[in-house]
Amino acid sequence: MVFNCRECGTCCMHLGDYIEIERQTGEFTFECESVSTGTAFTAEVDDDKRRIFADHSFSDAHPSACRFLRPDGEHLRCTIHRDSPAQCKFYRCVVMQIADPAGRSLGTVRGTLDLHSDDPDLRAIWDTEITKKRPKSDEEAEPWIAEYLAKKGYRVL
Ligand code: SF4
Ligand code: SF4
User: Fold this and answer.
1) Cα radius of gyration rounded to whole Å, the chain
2) Is there a single domain that holds both residue 82 and residue 15?
3) Ligand 1 atom 2: residue of nearest CA
């Protein structure tokens, strides 16, 4: 599945404590830390996002959200997309959508390769087969899981 971020901002809404601004060094430049990895980084607000960044009302109303998140029309956008940490750039909330042979959606697999589903049969296959047999590396596991589920008759997108 090719991942297309819809820029809904859901994943950034509770990352205010994880993307920490240490110091403002200019009108649009900041010294920051990615707390989960302990990595320091310098962020400059993207040229084309400075207008929306300048309005702080969203940040003030949502103190748990990342301080660089801003509404832009129907989207919530990262205003430091160019300088954001690697884990932000490569984050994928969903890597697989799983459906039954008729196309009825049964669940999703998240970027962390865990299953999100209420379907008991799919859950049982996941817990008793996939988690035990899958390759250890996530890179190899992702196509392996898709193929395994397809062989079981599921539609995997
Ligand atoms: S990665 Fe997913 S949750 Fe995060 S903004 Fe994109 S679509 Fe939304
Ligand atoms: S830096 Fe950007 S992508 Fe990362 S949490 Fe903040 S708004 Fe989201």
Assistant:
1) 19
2) yes
3) 93
Chain segment 43-71, per-residue pLDDT in tens? 999 999 999 999 999 999 999 999 999 99
Q: Are residues 17 and 85 in the same domain?
A: yes
The reply to whether ligand 1 has any atom less than 6 angstroms from the CB of 93 is yes
pLDDT at 4: 85
Pocket mutation for ligand 1, best pick of 2, 3, 4, 6 (most atoms within 8 Å of C-beta): 6
Q: What's the CA-to-centroid distance between 5 and ligand 1, angstroms?
A: 5
What confidence tens digit (pLDDT) does each residue in 129-145 have? 999 999 999 999 999 99
Among 139, 111, 115, 9, residue whose Cα is nearest residue 149: 115
Shared domain for 83 and 123, answered yes or no, is no
What does the pLDDT read at residue 3? 82
Ligand 2 in reach of 141 Cβ (< 6 A): no
Query: Could you tell me which of 138, 85, 84, 132 has the C-alpha nearest to residue 111?
Result: 138
Domain coverage including residue 135: 94-156
Asked whether the whole model's pTM tops 0.70, one would answer: yes
